[in-house]
TrEMBL record, chain A:
Protein name: Unannotated protein
InterPro entries the UniProt entry points to: AAA+_ATPase (IPR003593), ABC_SmlMolc_Importer (IPR050093), ABC_transporter-like_ATP-bd (IPR003439), ABC_transporter-like_CS (IPR017871), Mo/tungstate-bd_C_term_dom (IPR008995), P-loop_NTPase (IPR027417), PotA-like (IPR005893), PotA_ATP-bd (IPR017879)
UniProt keyword Ubl conjugation present: no
Organism: freshwater metagenome
Sorted UniProt keywords: ATP-binding, Cell membrane, Membrane, Nucleotide-binding, Translocase, Transport
TrEMBL record, chain B:
GO cellular component: plasma membrane
Record-linked Gene3D superfamilies: MetI-like (1.10.3720.10)
Keyword Translocase: no
Domain ABC transmembrane type-1 residue range list: 70-259
Membrane-topology annotation of the record: Multi-pass membrane protein
Transmembrane segments: 12-37, 76-96, 108-132, 138-159, 185-209, 237-258
Stated name of the protein: Unannotated protein
Keywords per UniProt: Cell membrane, Membrane, Transmembrane, Transmembrane helix, Transport
GO biological process, one term: transmembrane transport
Native source species: freshwater metagenome
Family stated for the protein in its record: Belongs to the binding-protein-dependent transport system permease family. CysTW subfamily.
Compartments, record wording: Cell membrane
Chief site of localization: membrane
Amino acid sequence: MSLLAEAPDQVADDTPYDGLRLRSVTKAFASFTAVDGLDLDVPRGSFFALLGPSGCGKTTTLRMVAGLETPTSGSITLAGQDITYAKPYRRPVNTVFQSYALFPHLDIFENVAFGLRRRRSADVKTQVHEMLELVELTSQARKKPAQLSGGQQQRVALARALINKPEVLLLDEPLGALDLKLRRSMQIEIKRIQTEVGLTFVHVTHDQEEAMTMADTVAVMNKGLIEQMGAPAELYENPRSTFVANFLGQSNLIEGAVLSRSADVTTVDMQGISVSVPTGRTHTDDAAGWVGIRPEKVLIGEEGEALDAPGNTIPGGVVSDVSFVGVSTQYLVRMPWGQELQVFEQNTGRRRRFAPGERVELSWRPEYAFLLDRSQDAGAGAVAGVLA
Amino acid sequence: MNGAAGRWLREHLVLMLGLLVLVYTFVPIAVVVLMSFNAPRGRNAVYQFNGFTLDNWLNPCADADLCSALGVSIRVGLLATVVATALGTLAAFALVRHDFAGRSASNVLIFLPMAAPEIVMGSSLLALFVSAGFAGQLGFWTILIAHVMFCLSFVVVTVRSRLAGMDDTLEQAAMDLYATPLQTFLRVTLPLVFPGILGAALLSFSLSFDDFIVTNLNSGSTVTFPMFVYGAAQRGVPMQVNVIGTLMFVVSIVIVVASELNNRRRSRALT
């Protein structure tokens, strides 16, 4: 968790940081505060995703880095230089806009060459051709943007920004306008290009799958603040708030009361059943909390059946709904305390499918469970994240 | 209506109505073109075709007053176009791109000269000139001021609609790609708004060229082409007026056809 700006006050601000650093950045508009005291460190050369629902402040953050918005307060530094108030055309940052914003009156070549020409760069022709080769558009150089397909326009927008070799490349929901299949292939394409050129990419998206596929660090943003930041797997496996637990995939959150805490394990009374959660995955100091478990970590079995899940076993469930989705079967199981839990089981073919109304027993390995703050809303982030 | 002829008529009714409208519109122009080849017979006001001649075309300035009036109109038209287009374009940018106190009021006020009857505009302008002490100096410059005034609204409205339809992220993208505000304007904004500005300029010129009412009230002893024609009509219009009329018509047709061809070429390139 070294990337986490948990205690920004203790970070020595006088040592130059070679990446992108935001400190207590706030952007207040007339009627609302879009970004509220944001601290963020983006390491040089990383593929960084800002993930959050619409209105969480991620695009505003991006625009402040690009210089298209001015922060109300706070500072932005890039490779040690303060760029908080620098004009957009005076900072080594380029943006791939959501709408691409290609210049309709210029052909593809001139669109890509635009930044080089403004800086009177030498050898424009060679550089543009190299860049068009990278995005596989060499044959389209003399066409106008309107003559290209959406995916091609997207690549032009990418090439037009990349050719300037910016310190940071900003991508504002760049794949939002493409259809699903094209989006998948562009995700891989952009990731490949990033690895190839080695520049710092900051990618804004509301699509959790896109963020996890492409980025090596994901910051989940909510209401103008970073909820949690880390590698995709880390965020998914060990969410620290109900928002992250629900927005990134799905979670079962069950109310519980802490019985005891030790160095490695916290024991929780979950609806009368004692379950344990590793202390490293316990994110509350209160006496009560939400016990969280991902649906695919929950095992389903007949009553009394011995499953490979020593530790947390919860009897007394009744299957209330079964959806067969090919690779897996998704169950809803009504528990004795009235809550319905989600269970995903892989269709390995080795286990039989349960039918609605059958009595079952659920269990999970304690190391997969996590404990969250009881005061947080168990439904936070769920609407946007569900069914993803 | 029965039979093949009846059916043919029913199917082509709209087409025939359209043709009739065209005939209705173009007959006067055809008369003008025809009369430009008419041999004059004395100074009579009766339009009558006396015989074919090329004299009118070969000596368009046979009547010196006609050509000096035409010169005034062209000079006023060009100057008014340049001034009104420049000012109107700037005003349109201000109205679309900047938020200032009184913006919505300005948006409404800019329409007023278009809506006000010309006779009202002309006479109030005359009252203004006279009360400001220019009564003895009415002429070229007062005509120019008057023309700039009524052309401005049309320029603002034309350019504003073009600007409002333009995506301002294009300008942000230019800035993001190291273009200074001036470069952004010259390389991105202006080329994209230019068709609107050009249209506004053409509109200004033709408004200025054929204005009679406002001009007549503020011209003093200066005579513009429409005023010359009006005055001459009472004595008998020299046939050269038809030559000028035909030329004006040809120039407009050429501009319209050229822009249409250009549009077609562009839309073909996009498919």
